[in-house]
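Milestone M4 deliverable, item 7.
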Amino acid sequence: MRLTLTGAALAATLGAAAAWAQPQSPGPTLAAVKQRDVLVCGTSTGAAGFSLPDSRGEYRGLDSDLCRALAAAVLGDTTKIRWVPLTGQARLPALQSGQVDVLIRTTTWTQVRDTANGLNFTAVNFYDGQGFMLRKSLGIGRATELQGASICVTSGSTNELNLADWARLNKVEYRPVVFEQNDEARRSYLAGRCDAYSTDASQLAGLRSSFPNPEEHVILPEIISKEPHAPAVRHGDDQWFDIVRWTFFALLTAEELGITQANIDGFQTSQNPEVRRLLGLTGDHGPLMGLDRRWAWQAVKAVGNYGEIFERNLGMGSAVRLPRGLNDLWTRGGLMYAPPIR
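Output delivered:
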């Protein structure tokens, strides 16, 4: 059966579509960011490969670069960021209270955080899992051999709860040595106050790379949890949620299309419809979120695509030396997948 629209119905449908496609006015968070001309980004107190100040005090890492991409998309300038270092216990209240505009800080997306805590997680920017690190000299090859061991862990994190669940399930008795900040746990582990250190495996790799003698430490093969990291925003501002989520998706899409920080200008004459939509050459995808048409171009030009960000901060060309694994594109066996910009 063939369905047709009458002239009046067709006009009404087209009118509704045109109204829907109108540029959007700034919502509360976007308006506040633009008024102060600064993005307030909640970050960690120090996580190698994700967010860690360098010798000049500049935050470096995957999470830090995502903050820069967001500042570029919204304000056109990666320097217009106020970094707010937050501990595991302080990070969620800081976002809930409006102390920060966005939390991009190795924060695991969980059901309670997504509902009861009044937060929205935008998109997974890193797939991780919790592991264990210890000294090779202990001669331990499996996590279940940590019977009676003291284990460093940070408070206010999923790591603390995961460790307790895993130990209970596997009948492993251990003594938790709990710290508020990762750096405290790192120093204590190095000082020998605990036999092992348990946190996300990527962070263990980053920590080990910073040790005086990294070859003396081993990361065990077991992964005891799912840790999907995702930038978080407050409930109640869908426009800002869309901006944070689609800025990340733009970085993924750029990698899929082969667009890099270095070659992006050469795509200005591309006739590929996907490229033209991404770079703002056609369509109103930026204005639909209250942004400039070139929002995605600005983000990629500032920090590169997702693959570039991963490689320089966590990949085999970095001190951390992590393989892409689950964080590779879906076309290469990973889980990274961006919905279409259209």
